[in-house]
Amino acid sequence: MQANHRRGSGQSRCGHVIKSMAVPLLKMLPDVQNLIALQQADREILRLREEIAALPKRVAVIEARLAGTRAVLEKAKSAIKADEASRRKYESAISDQQQKISKYRDQSLAVKTNEQYKALLHEIQFAEQDIRVNEDKILDLMVSAEIREKDVKAAEGKLKAETAEIEKEKVEARQRTAEDEKQLAEWNAKRDTARAGVDADLLRQYDRVAKHRGTGLSEARDHKCLACQVMLRPQTYNEVRAATQVVVCESCQRILYYDPANDEAADPAAVARRRRAHPKFESSQAWYYRANFGDHGEVFLVYINSKGTSSRQVYDSSSGRGLGDVLVREGEYRLAFPEDLTDDAIRLNGSWSESELEEWGNELPTATLDALHRDLDLARAESHSRSRARSQAAVSEHPAAS
Ligand SMILES: [Zn+2]
User: Fold this and answer.
1) How far is the CA of 195 from the centre of ligand 1 (A)?
2) N or C: which end of the chain has fewer CB within 10 A?
């Protein structure tokens, strides 16, 4: 936070004296400046501590993933081992049956009766069938072995990549932590310096509120405490701006400060510089301001184009109350109401839905009225700077004139 972007005098950049500047001194108390530094240090310290605490958690997440991949690999490998054991079992069953068959064949040479021969033949067929069953099982295992090999290869590749990643993460986390610790030490030193520069009672107030609300300091802007959003009494706001004593927000107890660099409303030049959206030439809804509208004085007018006809409603510009009835005429509004659109009529931004307009009835809501006034101010500031630029251009073209 820089404290030196205040303006020394009540002069704007273009050299005009700002008459409305009720508060001549735009400065900050040293206590408050130190509190701003303290608040920044407190925030940074908190952020760095959180970051330092979060780094091991990130490594732990990857480590858990790594353990998961390792388990998948182990499972795939033990499945292969189990298949190999099964295969040996089937192979030995086959060789057992083959031995039986050759034994039966030997016996069949010595049999005496047809029944005995048939019985042996039956045993041989049975053994052959069992061999085929075991052979099928071995074939199944061979097919699934290819899949299992692929599983193992995939898990091994993943494990390798994850191991590399975790090593990288660990190195980064170590570096980051070291860098954070260094910054933390710096911010702690800044914090000590800032605290030493603040009055003890004020520091107690700051600490007490910060403990309960997270922050002990708040900027006052646009008549509000920015931390709790409560409107400040005009006297309180002026006291904060004057910066001659420490002021506390009555609502949240935070110590208030005012930074003119952040307050556009206090700087008319900034308001004029702010870009204004330009009303669209073709639109179904058009708002205008007239400074002198018959007997009514200052008014806002809205025209709605709809299906070949246009309507007009007039509102008092200070109260927002509707004046007279809605007028409907044939044709687009510029053709239908030419007498309204005099040279001094100012076209404004404004586009509200038809249902909103209907809901308002015969009176503009405050928010709408405020929006129209704000746009009017911007439009005037814009035309002012345009005409000045024009007259300056005229002067430089004709130096002899005037
Ligand atoms: Zn507050």
Assistant:
1) 22
2) C
Which amino acid does the sequence have at 256?
L
Look at residue 48 in the predicted model and tell me its pLDDT: 96
Residue 83 structure tokens: 């298949």
Q: How far is the CA of 333 from the centre of ligand 1 (A)?
A: 49
Ligand 1: centre distance to CA 254 (Å): 6
pLDDT band of 350, cuts 50, 70, 90: confident
Q: Which tokens go with 342?
A: 């005099």
Sheet holding 299-306, edge to edge: 322-330, 309-316, 299-306, 285-290, 346-348
| Cα distances (angstroms) measured from residue 62 to each of 148, 164, 175, 178, 379 | 25, 11, 18, 21, 58
Query: SS3 sequence, 240-301?
Result: HHHCCCCEECCCCCCEEECCHHHCHHHCHHHHHHCCCCCCCCCCCEEEEEECCCCCCCCEEE
DSSP category for residue 17: B
Q: Is the pLDDT of residue 42 over 80?
A: yes
pLDDT of residue 268: 56
Measure 377 CA to ligand 1 centroid, in angstroms.
30
CA-based nearest residue to 1, from 270, 217, 253: 217
Q: What amino acid occupies position 64?
A: A
Neighbours of ion ligand 1 (CB under 5 A): 225, 228, 249, 251-252
Residue 350 near residue 285 (C-beta atoms within 8 A): yes
- What is the 8-class DSSP label of residue 326? E
Where helices occur in 306-349 by DSSP H, the ranges are: 333-336
Q: pLDDT for 310-329, tens place per residue? A: 999 999 998 899 998 889 99
Chain-centroid distance of CA 172 in Å reads 26
CB 262 within 8 A of CB 218: no
* pLDDT value at residue 20: 37
Tokens for 299, please give them: 């008014």
Ligand 1 center–CA 231 separation, angstroms: 8
CB 225 within 8 A of CB 254: yes
Residue 234 C-alpha to ligand 1 middle, in angstroms?
Answer: 14
Half-sphere exposure of 363 (CA within 13 A, CB side): 5
Consecutive H or E run containing 153: helix 114-196
- Please tell me the distance from the alpha carbon of residue 6 to that of residue 365, in angstroms, as a whole number: 37
